[in-house]
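Note to self: keep these together.
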Amino acid sequence: PFALWRHFPHCCHNQRIWFGQTSTMFPTVLRSVRPSASAPQGARGMATLKEISNRLRSVTNIAKITKSMKMVSAAKLTKAERALKAARGVASSATVLADKAGLVNEDVENRLVIAVSSDKGLCGGIHGGIARYIKGKLDSGDGVNNKLVVVGDRARQILGRTHADQLLVEAKGLGRGVPVFSEAALVAQEVLATGAEYDSASIVFNYFKNAGSYVVQEIELPGPGRIADNEAMSVYDEMDKDEIASFSEFQLASSLYYCMLEGQAAEQASRVQAMENASSNASDMIEKLQLKFNRTRQAVITTELIEIISGAIALDG
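Structure:
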């Protein structure tokens, strides 16, 4: 390249020349300064019309999908509300023994945090709310050794990026329809099968208020060790370790079942609202694209008429 610079010093001013491993720079320079053939104005208009038409067709198909998803989610919400209404009557039975016996979760050293979400998205920020709540709890700096159990792949994807070392059990593929007790019992069985000791268990879930709102709530349960060592339990019949383990498993499973029902109803309600907003936005985009398409088509037709009339006048003249 330095030899070429010495031989052609006048050709390198005010030009961008690429110096590579080969000395074939002249085709590169020629390609950079070669004038490009401009397309006719009518051709540009037709290309624009085709692009607008393709985008209009795409947005219309998306609007059909979101409307269908809204109808499906509304039907699933009705089933979830019916199942939740039947379960709310016995929701407090899982914690009534701890409340009556006065089991208070104080001086906790080991804590089990359970996130109840699902595997599906397109439902707003319902999974992100649970993840933010749990992140604040884990990063509070209270000196408690936390272990994390995640029900649902969406929350696992979020929490796994920052707290993968604290994951104890992760479950996905649950709650494809209305949750059943056997699914919650399977999760509780897997948690107890790990042998992890905990003084307190916190279940974080979305509480379904109505079709338009939900809120993140938390249920605290005492661990098996707290139940066995508490003096308040002496007023009841003598309980051995197997009975306490069975009770702890049932208490955890029933609480998980209730939280999964609440989360399912909140998720379907959020998805209905999200699909309604998406359908409304798609309708607005369709109106704007249709107006743009009509204006562009009219401009192309007007341009072609002007060219035809100008040519006819030139021939007559």
